[in-house]
Amino acid sequence: AQSVTQPDIHITVSEGASLELRCNYSYGATPYLFWYVQSPGQGLQLLLKYFSGDTLVQGIKGFEAEFKRSQSSFNLRKPSVHWSDAAEYFCAVGASGGYQKVTFGTGTKLQVIP
Amino acid sequence: EAQVTQNPRYLITVTGKKLTVTCSQNMNHEYMSWYRQDPGLGLRQIYYSMNVEVTDKGDVPEGYKVSRKEKRNFPLILESPSPNQTSLYFCASSPQPGLGGNIQYFGAGTRLSVL
């Protein structure tokens, strides 16, 4: 069965500092990997996805993520955080070849301080 | 505007009183899904539908029903709600693979309280 672990429940960073959110997955084959962001009171919005090819993927709002098969990781990064990035971030893994099963992590809540 | 619309956004009800949360998408997506979000548990899939008249259980289907009679609509039905179904619910839709893959588009959520 597929699973996702986001080890950090809550992270606080200063505005302008760099950010890395961790995600580890478990899946037997090549997974589909996603990062979603949820702003307060909102639904989830896709930041970026990895299906195949280049292991460094670029997303919206200046985010990027790197797929590392050897470490079963898909960490999200941003070089300089803005106050508007404060939100909850979810990593998700989907079954390759189909889309019926997507498993989400428990989320990391990001706080940005001035 | 492409969107997934859930109604109502907020709902307070009492134990045992049947309720329906509607979900509609205007993107002609085949796939639709319901999730519940609880603190510390992330999003858990309740039911999903691959197309009209095709539905299947997700990770936490107990106490819920769904139907998919039309492509655009995927209502979530709680026949006899209980307090442990108090949660934030999200509907999502997705096109077929190759036309966006597994990217899901989410509604704004329905916050349900069962007293």
Give an overview in words.
Helix content of chain A is 0%, strand content 52%. With 114 residues, chain A is mostly beta strands. In chain A, strands 2, 5, 6, 10, 11 and 12 form a 6-stranded mixed β-sheet that branches. In chain A, a hairpin with a 4-residue loop joins strand 8 (64-68) and strand 9 (73-78). Chain A is globular, with a radius of gyration of 13 Å. Chain A starts with a strand and ends with a strand. With 115 residues, chain B is an all-beta fold. Chain B is built from no helices and 11 strands. Chain B has strands at residues 4-7, 10-13, 19-25, 31-38, 42-51, 54-57, 65-66, 76-78, 87-94, 105-106, 110-114. In chain B, the strands form 2 sheets. In chain B, strands 2, 4, 5, 6, 9, 10 and 11 form a 7-stranded mixed β-sheet that branches. Chain B has a 4-stranded antiparallel β-sheet with strand order 1-3-8-7, with no helix packed on it. The mean pLDDT of chain B is 92.
Major sheet description of chain B: 7 strands, mixed
Helix segment tally of chain A = 0
Shape of chain B: globular
Strand content of chain A: over 45%
Give the overall shape of chain A. Answer: globular
The low-pLDDT segments of chain A are: none
* SS elements, strand count of chain B: 11
Would you count the extended β strands of chain A for me? Answer: 12
Instruction: Give the quaternary arrangement of the chains.
Output: heterodimer
Q: What is the radius of gyration of chain A?
A: 13 Å
Secondary-structure element string of chain A: EEEEEEEEEEEE
Q: Which helices and strands appear, and what pairs or packs with what?
A:
The complex is a heterodimer of chains A (114) and B (115).
Chain A: E1 3-5, E2 10-14, E3 19-21, E4 24-26, E5 32-38, E6 44-50, E7 56-58, E8 64-68, E9 73-78, E10 87-94, E11 102-104, E12 108-113
Parallel strand pairs in A: 2-12
Antiparallel strand pairs in A: 1-4, 3-9, 5-6, 5-10, 7-8, 8-9, 10-11, 10-12
Chain B: E1 4-7, E2 10-13, E3 19-25, E4 31-38, E5 42-51, E6 54-57, E7 65-66, E8 76-78, E9 87-94, E10 105-106, E11 110-114
Parallel strand pairs in B: 2-11
Antiparallel strand pairs in B: 1-3, 3-8, 4-5, 4-9, 5-6, 7-8, 9-10, 9-11
